[in-house]
Amino acid sequence: MRSRRVQILVALVLTALWGAGIFAAHANGHLRFLDRLEATLTDWRTQVRGVQRPPDLVTIVAIDDTVVKRGGSYPLPRADLARVVDTLVQFKPKVIAIDLLLVDRSAAIGDATLANTLATGPVVLAAAAIFPTDSETVAPSSEGPLAVLPQAERFLLPLPAFAEHAEVGVVNVATGQSGSPLSVPMLFRTADKVELSFPLRVAARALDKPLTIAPDHLRLGDRVVPTDTDFALPITYYGPRRTIRTVSAQSIFDGTLNRAAIENRIVVIGAAVAGGGDFYPTPFDSLMPGVEVVATAITHLVAGDGIVRDRRVHAADAFGAMLLPMLLVGLLAWRRSALGIMAAAAVVIAWAGLNLFAFTHGVWLNAANTLAAAVPPVAVFAGVQLWAGGRRTQYLAAKSRSLAQFQAPAVQDWLAHDPNFLSKPIRQDAAVVFIDLSGFTGLSERTDPDALQDILKAFHALLDKTAADCGGLITGFLGDGAMILFGLPRAMPDDAARALKCAIDLHRGVERWIASLAPAIGHQLGFKIGAHFGEIVASRLGESHQHITATGDTVNVASRLMEVAARNCARLALSDTLLNTADFHGAPDGILSGPLLTQVRGRSGVVTVWFWRDRDVPGQAATKAEMIG
Q1: 341: number of Cβ within 10 Å
Q2: Whose CA is closest to 257, among 275, 273, 270, 245?
Q3: Residue 62 in 3-state DSSP?
Q4: Residue 439 — left, alpha, or beta (φ > 0 → left; ψ -120 to 50 → alpha)?
Q5: How many CB atoms lie within 10 A of CB 294?
Q6: Rounded distance, CA 210 to CA 222, Å?
Q7: Over residues 594-613, mean pLDDT
Q8: Do the strands 167-170 and 246-248 form a parallel or antiparallel pair, or are they unpaired?
Q9: Mean pLDDT, rounded, for 54-69
């Protein structure tokens, strides 16, 4: 038991270390395949959560296919963009965010018109960060909290003529390995400067709150912006494209734009035309315009309804990566059965439910990390358990086969069902049959030990089969004899009748067996049998090696009846009590003679005894009924 506890403790410690290692490796940028798994699991959780109605704060003005079909072109001419901005300014929005890169010069009059228009209202322009590789995540090259920011080679800024009339923010988003944007960086850096992201710049302007960059979070006024550890804002989509209020820029050219869709709102101008602008796959839409991704991030920042994935959530992830596999391994070790498997399955279901509940209520717990931490150790432990269980089954089967040579199958089954069977002595009625070989002691002095052992094996096998066929329990072999008990594991109404049948079958079986032996051996052997019925005391004796036995007057009488049989030149002596209890009135193939009133050694009073033999042996009267008559 102590060894098993140590093994379980070692398994739990190794499991915890595995979970901690998985979390640490992924947190340090390794095990990138887990990002793809997490992206897939995030899509599933988002779909299970379903479409949500976004806060009505943002309106997207889309430069879409309608604009192009009705005589426009893409990219939209600067003069046309100036007309769009001018119309929007007149409707008094909180801020106009232009999600278009105005980095190239066009017609001079168009650029001048747009520059003058930008000066008339609160405008934020988009810039882009240019990275040396396809990945925006690079190794930090300096100390401090800003070292975790994605480091760009340079920023692609709007033309100075435009930038001097507006604020600028970096519009890049961070896509996971699935291609779906899962977060938007709030800060970017180059070797010598730090820039705010486009959504953060728009939100700060719309809220008109001061922005504070703390070592592990951002703050807009008095409100903390929950970002990831690298100052990225996790995003979760409200629904498919156009879930956030969207109007076509063509409505401005047609003069049909509803003022209520613009006034006192954040307006984001962006491309949604096929073949132009960025499109991303999301849980609800295979192609969502990048402007809607940006608008989602802006809404999260302004409404404060984004999903949380900060340092505390990562600490919970680390705890879960160690706790869940430890719980599963512990449950499998606690119950190596269907109960343990069911308990482990219940824990997995509960964990999945908790993870989904947290996600739908705004907390993003990493599911991929926890699965990677739990599945391998549970699989290994379960495999070891199966292997050990197979070895243990083989061991127990061998042990059971060995035990069967010393203990009756009925007692084995009963002890397996009730390990405390006969832990306290009990009194009950039972039938007892004794048998003993005559002349065996003298034979053993003149016979080879190997041959003698073969004789005993054959004799014991005969006793064992006969007792088992009649439902008797051999409580022990007494060298060249045995005691057979009828009444255990529990007393039965036919115990006496089965004991009588066993005694008669032993008489015939042993007689035939002796006749089959070589004459030099068979002529030296005989046998005697005594059987009685009455109260016994059944108990388990011994400490480390226990055996079941019966004691009392009934056992003593049954044993002494063998002496009575020998004194009266008989082989089978039966007590009157046994015959009456068995309701025996004779049999056509045997002769019952008696009664004989006699005393037995070690007991006061007399015992009424009957003797039985086969009919083909010359002798006395046939049945008990005839004798009484």
Answers
A1: 14
A2: 245
A3: strand
A4: left
A5: 28
A6: 9
A7: 87
A8: unpaired
A9: 92
pTM exceeding the 0.70 threshold for the entire prediction: no
Average pLDDT of the chain, as a whole number? 84
By C-alpha distance, which of 42, 29, 25 is closest to 234? 42
| Packing angle of the helix pair 338-360, 311-334 (nearest 10 deg) | 170
Token pair listed for 73: 């072109």
Element (H, E) at 164: none
pLDDT (average), residues 150-155: 83
367-421 per-position pLDDT tens digit: 999 999 988 888 887 777 777 666 655 655 555 555 455 455 556 566 666 666 6
Terminal-residue alpha carbon distance, the chain: 68
d(CA 112, CA 480): 123
Distance CA 576, CA 597 (A): 10
Residue 491: strand, helix, or coil: coil
Place of tokens 């960059």: 213
Higher-pLDDT residue of 502 and 404 is 502
Does a cis peptide bond (omega within 30 degrees of 0) precede residue 595?
yes
Decide if 102 contacts 158 (C-beta within 8 A). Answer: yes
Whether the bond into 489 is cis, omega within 30 of 0: yes
469: its two tokens: 């066929």
For strand 246-248 and strand 58-63, is the pairing parallel, antiparallel, or unpaired? parallel
Q: Quick one: tokens of 409?
A: 């199958």
Question: Is the pLDDT at 344 greater than 80, yes or no?
Answer: yes
Tokens of residue 355, six digits: 């993870």
Render 442-467 in DSSP notation, one character per residue: HHHHHS-HHHHHHHHHHHHHHHHHHH
At 609, list the tokens: 């005894």
